[in-house]
């Protein structure tokens, strides 16, 4: 195990921790921006440090194709290759294949897929995924799991869960660098609490450095989503980090943190920036909208970032979706927003004012008091009283 | 704006000077104006811009025609002008030039006596002097160039003469406009005349009679040959007063810049760096070698033409050295050729960001070396030695090919 996870503060299920990885001492809860190809689109590594990024996610599938894991290894690992001194996490590559390639098929051996280079059938086994991730050299590597859409039901879910458990042993056996890289197991089991429970127990028996909750953020309804998170966080060990994969929106992160999750990743902040959307406390701001053309206010009046300190909405409006600079500046702001959210979650938990933070977050996002029911339900389980920001229905 | 000359090359027309704007902005010339899109270098955000040498990187060109859509002139004006909306430091200097050779291209066939036509992202637009002055008075640049009827070198004699007539009329329209009186920026009178020496001279003499703070030599880089330039530039330069700054657009290659400097040009705006960056090229010609130091920091890479390398080339796949060992730019201090090569392979925007930083840094260094050579009385030697090295390297490349 190459990490330390020290809880600095709690509020009911929520926790704030000092999370020491080989390359960086992080603070949780934390959001990890996705740097698919060894770069976060449009930002330099020094800008990412300025913004406060702690861990960047790299996609194994993409990196294995170009520049190849062998080359990254030969040149000293991904940290050195992209000149990122802080922590890195790589996924297993399986999810990317299943989601990007039509012809991916999962068997007991591994994920078979058609090579995007020459069309030949290829196989990604758990052993191979770990070997590739060992070459890339991230602080955290992910086990190859059998991914199924949460919207699928029936025996396939059960098969995938048991296969994920069988594969974890193959991953552990293949892992050559446990002293410098942390292998996280992934909880599967769809929306079925019984299957999720079996999977959690199975993984916890293996005493892994950390655990991820997988198979979510795939189109399931929000009530099912948070219930799976709540169930898993309740039964995962207290002293290990918990990572909710593919999440997400600021609201989801606040809810999951209240339920006891620690880490998140999503392409959303940078992808939405490229389409001209800014993350703001009120929700989102669409900079492409005509109304922005003569709006002299900053993107987010409360934001301290380089972009909000220097630019008006009007100026960003003429850049977005037309010039590279538009997505550079909005990605910068959006990631700054996510990092600020992570810091606020951490400090409000440590300083014992987490409920106040959650309430003020919800008030800004839902000024009418129309907090979605699933959020109210989740907060009840999390033991956070949000009644002050939910208006009761008018009795007409 | 104040302009002071401080040194002349012995032999030739090269000169070194200082361009002063306000109390805290002074730029040494010959100088490069950074090309911008909507007021910012294409890929360099302001926090990264501050890593480039100061004050060299504080002089920027922009085209008012980039703001034909979206934000209104009224809003730009109310916010305090372009410098404010582009979020740059107040000590930077903005120079407005209608043509930018990237997205605002002169379209001489559609220009008529009322105004100049341009191909822009918002379609073909006819800009009259009054429209232009509205833009200038709202954007409040430190310097601005008068509207010109720019034509390529191959147009008929008649069209060329018309272009001179119109450009002079439009200069008068610009400077006598009511809006000019509330425009504080220094005006540079545009000089056209295509490839006809007499027309170049006539235009320059007419513009020199007007109340302008400097001169903008327009219509270059539009099809004329590099060999006919010295005579054309000579005809212009001898017709305008020595004490005022001279700017040119369209000379970008290092040899072309040296040619312009030798003719007596002080300010250069060109899209060379932008074009190089898009093509994956990094400038690598040695800066120290020429009469300055004996140490040669130049590369001898395969695939190089002696001035630049193409980072898309597969030979850089495993190259863990920076673009230039001796370069102090952010890119060379932090990244390898192998990484930038990868970024180009996977079409990641960071490739252009890193390359534009390096190329801008390097090119500003080239201008610094030029200024030093002029001040030390070695410009002609420097120019000859640069051209010779270049010729030898092309010869060597041809032999090894
Ligand atoms: Zn901001
Ligand atoms: Zn450099």
UniProtKB/TrEMBL annotation, chain A:
One of its GO terms (molecular function) is metal ion binding. Residues 246-252, 270-274 are annotated as: RNA binding. Keywords: Cytoplasm, Glycosyltransferase, Metal-binding, Transferase, tRNA processing, Zinc. Substrate binds at residues 91-95, 145, 188, 215. The keyword tRNA processing applies. Heterodimer of a catalytic subunit and an accessory subunit. Belongs to the queuine tRNA-ribosyltransferase family. Its EC number is 2.4.2.64. GO terms for biological process: tRNA processing. Residues 13-365 form the tRNA-guanine(15) transglycosylase-like domain. The lineage of its organism: Eukaryota, Viridiplantae, Streptophyta, Embryophyta, Tracheophyta. One of its GO terms (cellular component) is cytoplasm. Its main location: cytoplasm. This is Queuine tRNA-ribosyltransferase catalytic subunit 1. Catalytic subunit of the queuine tRNA-ribosyltransferase (TGT) that catalyzes the base-exchange of a guanine (G) residue with queuine (Q) at position 34 (anticodon wobble position) in tRNAs with GU(N) anticodons (tRNA-Asp, -Asn, -His and -Tyr), resulting in the hypermodified nucleoside queuosine (7-(((4,5-cis-dihydroxy-2-cyclopenten-1-yl)amino)methyl)-7-deazaguanosine). Catalysis occurs through a double-displacement mechanism. The nucleophile active site attacks the C1' of nucleotide 34 to detach the guanine base from the RNA, forming a covalent enzyme-RNA intermediate. It is found in: Cytoplasm. Zn(2+) binds at residues 303, 305, 308, 333. Pfam families: TGT. Its cofactor is Zn(2+).
From TrEMBL, chain B:
Zn(2+) binds at residues 327, 329, 332, 358. Heterodimer of a catalytic subunit and an accessory subunit. Binds 1 zinc ion per subunit. This is Queuine tRNA-ribosyltransferase accessory subunit 2. One of its GO terms (molecular function) is metal ion binding. Non-catalytic subunit of the queuine tRNA-ribosyltransferase (TGT) that catalyzes the base-exchange of a guanine (G) residue with queuine (Q) at position 34 (anticodon wobble position) in tRNAs with GU(N) anticodons (tRNA-Asp, -Asn, -His and -Tyr), resulting in the hypermodified nucleoside queuosine (7-(((4,5-cis-dihydroxy-2-cyclopenten-1-yl)amino)methyl)-7-deazaguanosine). One of its GO terms (biological process) is tRNA processing. GO terms for cellular component: cytoplasm. Residues 13-390 form the tRNA-guanine(15) transglycosylase-like domain. Belongs to the queuine tRNA-ribosyltransferase family. QTRT2 subfamily. It is found in: Cytoplasm. PANTHER family: QUEUINE TRNA-RIBOSYLTRANSFERASE ACCESSORY SUBUNIT 2. Keywords: Cytoplasm, Metal-binding, tRNA processing, Zinc. Its cofactor is Zn(2+). Pfam families: TGT. InterPro entries: QTRTD1 (IPR028592), Queuine_tRNA-ribosyltrfase (IPR050852), TGT-like_sf (IPR036511), tRNA_ribo_trans-like (IPR002616). It comes from Penstemon smallii. NCBIfam families: tgt_general.
């Amino acid at each position: 195990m190459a990490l330390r996870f020290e809880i600095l503060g709690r509020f009911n299920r929520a926790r704030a921790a000092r999370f020491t990885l080989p390359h960086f001492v992080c603070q949780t809860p934390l959001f990890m921006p996705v740097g698919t190809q060894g770069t976060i689109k449009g930002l330099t590594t020094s800008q990412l440090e300025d913004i406060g990024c702690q861990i960047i996610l790299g996609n194994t599938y993409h990196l294995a194709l170009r520049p190849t894991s062998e080359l990254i290894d030969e040149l000293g690992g991904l940290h050195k290759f992209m000149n990122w001194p802080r922590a890195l996490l790589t996924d297993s590559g399986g999810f990317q294949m299943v989601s990007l390639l039509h012809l991916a098929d999962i068997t007991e051996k591994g994920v078979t897929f058609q090579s995007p280079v020459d069309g030949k059938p290829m196989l990604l086994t758990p052993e191979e995924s770990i070997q590739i991730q060992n070459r890339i050299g991230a602080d955290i590597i992910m086990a190859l799991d059998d991914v199924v859409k949460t919207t699928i039901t029936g025996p396939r879910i059960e098969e995938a869960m048991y296969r994920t458990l069988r594969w974890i042993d193959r991953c552990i056996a293949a892992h050559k660098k446990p002293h410098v890289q942390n292998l996280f197991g992934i909880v599967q089991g769809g929306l079925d609490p019984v299957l999720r429970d079996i999977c959690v127990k199975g993984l916890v028996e293996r005493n892994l450095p950390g655990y991820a909750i997988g198979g979510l953020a795939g189109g399931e309804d929000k009530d099912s989503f948070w219930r799976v998170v709540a169930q898993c966080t309740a039964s995962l060990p207290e002293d290990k980090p918990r990572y909710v994969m593919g999440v997400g929106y600021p609201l989801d992160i606040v809810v999951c943190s209240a339920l006891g999750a620690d880490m998140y990743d999503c392409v959303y902040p940078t992808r939405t920036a490229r389409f001209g959307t800014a993350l703001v406390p009120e929700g989102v701001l669409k900079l492409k909208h005509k109304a922005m053309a003569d709006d002299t206010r900053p993107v987010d009046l409360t934001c301290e970032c380089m972009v909000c300190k220097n630019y008006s909405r009007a100026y960003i409006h003429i850049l977005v979706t037309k010039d590279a600079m538009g997505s550079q500046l909005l990605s910068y702001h959006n990631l700054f927003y996510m990092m600020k959210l992570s810091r606020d979650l951490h400090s409000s938990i440590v300083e014992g004012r987490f409920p106040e933070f959650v309430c003020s977050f919800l008030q800004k996002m839902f000024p009418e008091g129309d907090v979605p029911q699933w959020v109210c339900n989740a907060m009840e389980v999390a033991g956070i009283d949000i009644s002050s920001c939910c208006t009761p229905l008018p009795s007409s | 704006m104040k302009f002071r000359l401080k040194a002349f090359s012995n032999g030739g027309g090269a000169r070194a000077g200082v361009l002063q704007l306000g109390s805290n902005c002074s730029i040494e010339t010959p100088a490069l104006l950074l090309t911008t899109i909507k007021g910012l270098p294409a890929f360099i955000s302001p926090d990264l811009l501050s890593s480039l040498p100061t004050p060299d990187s504080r002089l920027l060109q922009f085209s008012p025609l980039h703001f034909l859509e979206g934000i209104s002139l009224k809003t730009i004006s109310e916010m305090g002008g372009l410098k404010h909306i582009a979020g740059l430091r107040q000590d930077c200097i903005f120079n407005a030039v209608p043509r930018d050779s990237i997205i605002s291209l002169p379209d001489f066939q559609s220009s008529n006596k009322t105004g100049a036509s341009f191909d822009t992202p918002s379609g073909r637009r006819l800009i009259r002097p009054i429209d232009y002055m509205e833009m200038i008075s709202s954007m409040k640049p430190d310097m601005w160039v008068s509207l010109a009827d720019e034509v390529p070198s191959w147009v008929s004699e008649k069209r060329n003469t018309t272009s001179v007539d119109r450009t002079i009329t439009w200069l008068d329209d610009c400077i006598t406009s009511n809006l000019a009186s509330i425009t504080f920026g220094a005006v540079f009178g545009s000089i056209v005349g295509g490839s006809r020496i007499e027309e170049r001279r006539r235009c320059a003499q007419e513009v020199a009679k007007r109340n302008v703070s400097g001169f903008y030599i327009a219509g270059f880089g539009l099809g004329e040959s590099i060999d006919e330039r010295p005579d054309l530039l000579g005809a212009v330069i001898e017709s305008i007063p020595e004490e005022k700054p001279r700017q040119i657009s369209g000379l970008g290659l290092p040899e072309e810049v040296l040619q312009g400097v030798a003719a007596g040009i002080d300010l250069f705006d060109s899209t060379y760096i932008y074009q190089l960056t898009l093509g994956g090229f990094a400038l690598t010609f040695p800066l120290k070698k020429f009469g300055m130091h004996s140490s040669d920091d130049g590369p001898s890479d395969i695939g190089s033409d002696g001035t630049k390398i193409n980072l898309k080339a597969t030979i850089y796949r495993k190259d863990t050295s920076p673009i230039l060992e001796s370069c102090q730019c952010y890119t060379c201090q932090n990244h390898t050729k192998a990484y930038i090569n990868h970024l180009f392979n996977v079409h990641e925007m960071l490739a252009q960001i890193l390359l534009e930083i390096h190329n801008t840094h390097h090119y500003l260094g080239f201008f610094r070396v030029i200024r030093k050579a002029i001040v030390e009385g070695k410009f002609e030697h420097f120019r000859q030695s640069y051209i010779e090295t270049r010729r030898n390297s092309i010869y060597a490349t041809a032999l090894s090919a």
